[in-house]
Amino acid sequence: MLVKVYNKEGQETAATVELPDAVFGIEPNTHAMYLDVKQYLAHQRQGTHKAKERSEMSGSTRKLHKQKGTGGARKGDINNPLYKGGARVFGPKPRDYSFKLNKKVKALARRSALSQKAAGSQITVLEDFTFEAPKTSAFARFLSGFQASNQRVLVVTSDKNEALVLSSRNLQKARVVRAEDLNTYELMKASRLLLMSSSVGKISQQLNP
Predict the structure, then answer these.
(1) How do residues 99-115 score in pLDDT, each as one tens digit?
(2) CB 8 within 8 A of CB 145
(3) Boundary-marking domain end, from 70, 96, 122
(4) What is the pTM (predicted TM-score) of this model?
(5) Which of 24, 47, 197, 203 could form a disulfide with 118 if both were Cys (CB 3.0 to 4.6 A apart)?
(6) Which residues contact 198 (CB under 8 A, 6 or more apart)?
(7) Which residues make beta-bridge pairs with 165?
(8) Do residue 111 and residue 132 come from a single domain?
């Protein structure tokens, strides 16, 4: 797939870039994308939630009344979960939510997300650029040149670009990542994908099956 390259002002240049069909032109595998997003979100969970069960409660363990003959239900002690202030039955405990996902499945998910963006004309390739100093207003002007000021935008660079990262940090819907840090969740969340021309080769090299 041959696409045009734009400069940072949003103007078309004479250059073109080839987006390999093996990465940007496959039939999207929705289940692989689901698994990769599920794993990403699972890894964000702290898993530190905790509720006390009956054996962990403070309070007397004296049986409130005899088992039979009262006409009422058998109750046990004051920590009974049926009472107000009592314990919780099968409450949450600290746990690790992460799970393993094969590298090939993760790569397929990212290729599927990129192919979906390409099919929806949501990918734009840019000339490599940077800012002399971090400036949010400069990044906002850059986005407006692509009519993306109110869209959720993901800018992908080939290497770490501190000035761009800091310039975008105060904009809620904009994010700058390196090609090697791309993940399916961020790809799916973004409505526009702006790729630096040098990042296309890195993405292809990283995800080419």
Answers:
(1) 999 999 999 999 999 99
(2) yes
(3) 96
(4) 0.82
(5) 24
(6) 128, 157, 158
(7) none
(8) yes
